[in-house]
Predict the structure.
Amino acid sequence: MPVESVYPALEPLLPRVRKPIQYVGGEVGSVTKDWDAADVRWALCYPDAYEVGLPNQGVQILYEVLNERDGVLAERTYTVWPDLEALMREHGVPQFTVDAHRPVSAFDVLGVSFATEMAYTNLLTVLDLAGIPLFSSERSVAHPLVIAGGHAAFNPEPIADFLDAVVLGDGEQAVLAITDLIRDWKRAGQPGGRDGLLLRLATVAYVPRFYDVSYHPDGRISNVTPNRQGVSSSVSKHTVMDLDAWPYPRRPIVPVAETVHERYSVEIFRGCTRGCRFCQAGMITRPVRERSITTVGSMVAGGLAASGFDEVGLLSLSSADHSEINEIAVDLADCYQGTNVGLSLPSTRVDAFNVTLANELSRNGRRSGLTFAPEGGSERMRKVINKMVTEEDLLRTVTTAYASGWRQVKLYFMCGLPTETDADVLAIAQLARRVIAAGREATGRRDIRCTVSIGAFVPKPHTPFQWAAQCAPEVVDARLRALGGALRADRAYGKSIGFRYHDGQPGLIEGLLSRGDRRVGGVILAAWREGARFDGWSEHFSFERWMRCAESTLATEPVDVAWYTTRERDYSEVFPWDHLDAGLDRDWLWQDWQDSIAPEGAAEVEDCRWTPCYECGVCSAMGTEIQVGPTGERLDGRRLLPVVGGRT
Amino acid sequence: MSEPEGRGGAWTEERRSRDEERRRTERAQKASGKHGVAQPAAQLPAVQHLVVRYAKRGKMRFASHRDVARVFERGVRRAGLPIAYSAGFTPHPRISYSGGAQTGVASEAEYLSLALTSRQAASQVRELLNETLPDGIDVIDVTEDTEGRSAALEASQWRVVLPGVEPVAAERAVAGFLALDEAPVERLTDKGVRRLDARAAVVTLDVAEPAEADGGPRAAVAGVQGCAILRMVVLHMAPAVRPDDVLTALREQHGLVPSSPPITTRLAQGSLALLAGTSVL
């Protein structure tokens, strides 16, 4: 059956919208395959604007993995801005892919990658424009399967009613397994219809409709149980165990439009066991699996040649922790010396060795700014979150940075962490002043700067803080105001210290969506119907709309926004995501939570890469193991950087 | 110290640039009082300038100037061309663009100039670029820049397809426009409303014959009956008058309203003498 391009209908609308180039595709690295030669067809969606969605690694990886297979076709689709949405509705143009402008409704699968909960309303825009019924229960065999993935999908319950299936964890192998299941089902004549397909999918993914949720009269969940024979009571995440065997993206998509990241990114390892208690990414991606220096080297060479980018980002949750980061930095800097290719490590722990690495990678570049994330302002606070960074570490790190010619240091913090007091936040002002004083002393210059960047903490599922009460936005805002005042108050330092913050209100809605259950789905639908779009963008976000919709939707329930967010949970509470298994032992998480809030002061947990296993449960539950080097291989040269500072 | 003769210019140049780099590093270190502070890399000098005529076609008509710049910067690197870079901490490929067609406007005659650090055959540069550029950004011609090309780009010839407009109606509006001494229009820019005289820049303006219209790449707009096609030669002046300013005048002052957005294509750029005397359509 031929599928017509919607481009002829779309084209006359494009001169009337902002940045039309984002809707036309045709990028180097994009693929357009013969529709009829494919037997399984994926539309991959990043539910945000093209400029944010295009650089997303997850989508690019899956796009390439799928398109490399014969008989499989994958195209991309993004959320259109409200200006085009209005025109598409007026002119009856459906949600389309940017590759061949095919209607999304014609595909077998709509795979949606959620990096953040704030994109949930954008999912509804995509479904609605595609002509796909919003509710899974209303779809027929004629509609695409709507499958979610990404970090936010580790608690998909708030959008469970809109999804057919959810993939937990790494997608590379999972999408191929799903592809095989769909192909077999189609070839067998679609036995059992849509339900038959979902039952097959339930072996590799979570199918929300096969689980019933029951509640206590007070609103807490009493249990979540499968309602079909043969459906497992819990669903496990997928873990790719050899990153060298999956060296994607190989041929990155090179946008014509401007996007948020203009570089070729290589993931140098996946997972993190630093054990920061607030960090969902670090908890759900365990264990650490390194990509070898030689694979990193060949990916960089191939990716640059294929893309023409002039910047390489070495991605991971804590890049300096790669067992051969020293060799990677030196060898890549040597390889690309004199080529005008820039190298960067976007993720930065407070560690003086990070400065050495940044120096090496910026040999010939401008040393404008370095970013570190102490996260907590006081020593006590950093112990609570298990950040394992002392003030001495921080001062040594920034001093090294200023002395090596970096002019600006950015420091990331969170506000509203468990047990936090006003004093903990005000300590950030003290810290910033000491940073500037140390920098001035080390350089003898007064033009060095420090920017304090702070946002509200949101407790996330599958972390030790999943039991925590979220701090109310009024409290967060009051502390941020006080901090801003304290930073400006000192005239000797005020002009050297910048202050950036995010208000507490969006954080509360993020909290509702992060730890919500299926009852929150109604709130999302109501907010979307009342116009909620692009909630991650401050110019589109409306706190009042969300609160109004939550109040009306939850009026008949014994729960409200405060119940989902600012309420501390106890040990026995059943979480909406308890049947979704990231491998973390619940009792270990609980103990880590208790350790963090212990009245005598928080107990710290070391990293299991260099201390004995502390039994978080992931490796034993998932049959995985830590994969780290050193491999002893080199790309070029035999030099190494001196290891300075207190590298743990 | 005596140098052996006949070692060749390349060697001397390489050694000289190494010395220069060392001296610069020392100077900078003295200035900052610190060692280990990054210095910008020395860049090779440009030895050849090539003028590239390229087209912006099909879906790529929606690319903005900056989008096109991104495409070429990455394209020359993928093609492996020895592009020269600007000096300083953030070196940029030395590509200079001459006033590109605006977002949404197609073109058969855009120009840019490449500075290269080693001499290349113009035809090979064209082939290498066309192999790697996205479809729709197509290199038409590459030539040595001998005469300072941009000085000669005095005017452009444009074709404008007006969906849903009967040729007779277009003829009437065009005649009315040409009879004017001036045609004041307003255009909303990022800096506010700008007032222009659309008439002053128009050298020629007429309605193409239907026979000619059939051959145009965008003459047939899906589902639209009757497509008038304008062609015009417009002077490059400051502030710039664009074909859509002329269309604004035709709409506001002569009631010419297309049923969907017009499709504009730049067909040629060059000296006024050349464009006024010829038709590329």
